[in-house]
Amino acid sequence: MGDSVVNKWSAGIGYGPVLSQTDLYLLNTELQLHPIMAGGGASGFHLMFNLVTGSTGGFNPNDRDQDVPFLQKDEPATLPRVQDLIIICESSPWCTIVHNDRGVTMGDVCSTIWKEYTENYVTEGEFVCLPARLQEQVKRAATHNASSGATWNMYYNTPAPPNRYKRVDWLRDKYYFDGLSKKDNYSVQRLGFRAPNIFVLSLTS
C-alpha cells in the first residue's frame, strides 16, 4: 500500500539508514535487490548494459522497438541501502566491490563493474590456466572489443600492451548484463563465506 504513495526505490538520502559492512553483518539483514538489478524486465524496464563500452540503456519488454534511457541509475541498488556490494561472476575469477558511503546506486554497480573489467588486465598466470581453445576465443574477443572501443581510443591514446588482454576480453561473447542474484552455495565455494551483500552477476551475449 505504501509503495503506491511513495516509490520506495526513489533516489535520495531520506529513505532510511545506509548500512555499513559491519552493521550489515551484525544485523544479518536480508537485502532486497532492485527489480532492475534482478533482470528479466519484471520492473517494466530491461537494462541493456554493455561491459565493453560501458553504455547503459534499456527497453520496455512490452515495447522492444523503443529504446529507453536508464533514468533510474541514481536509485538504490538494494533496500536497505548499503555502503558495499560484493559481486562475483560464474564467468570470471574476479570479485568486484562496489562502494558508496551514501548508499550503492544502480549507476555505481554499472560504472564499477565496467571499470573493473576494462581497466584491469588478465595476468599471465590467469591466462595460461585457460584451455587453448578458450585462449584463442579470448584473443578473438580482444580484437573485436578493441575495434568496438576504437572511437573512445581516438581521444585516449592508451593502446593495450602486446599479448595482454583485458578482463572484459575473458568474457568472450557474453558481455551484456543479465542480472544479479543470490547464490549462497556458490558464494561459499568462491569466497569461503556467505553474506547478505554478495550477489552473483549473470551475463549474456
Distance from N terminus to C terminus (CA atoms, Å) equals 38 Å
Beta fraction: 15-25%
Overall geometry? globular
Helix-and-strand structural type: alpha+beta
Oligomer: single chain
Strand order of the largest sheet: 9-8-11-10
Mean pLDDT: 89
If helices are DSSP runs of H or I spanning 4 or more residues, what is the number of helices?
9
- List the uncertain runs: 150-157
Give the total of beta strands. 11
Biggest beta-sheet profile: 4 strands, mixed
C-alpha Rg, in Å? Answer: 18 Å
- Elements, N to C (H/E): HEHEHEEEEEEEHHHHHEHE
Helix content: 25-40%
Give your account of this protein's structure.
This protein is an alpha+beta fold and 205 residues long. The chain is 33% helix and 23% strand. It is built from nine helices and eleven strands. The chain has helices at 2-5, 21-27, 35-38, 106-118, 124-128, 132-148, 150-155, 167-170, 184-191; strands at residues 18-19, 32-33, 46-49, 56-60, 63-68, 78-79, 81-82, 84-89, 95-99, 176-181, 198-204. The strands form four sheets. It has a four-stranded mixed β-sheet, with helices on both faces. Strands 3-4-5 form a three-stranded antiparallel β-sheet, with no helix packed on it. Strands 1-7 form a two-stranded parallel sheet. A hairpin with a 5-residue loop joins strand 8 and strand 9 (95-99). It is globular. The termini are far apart. Residues 150-157 have low confidence and may be disordered.
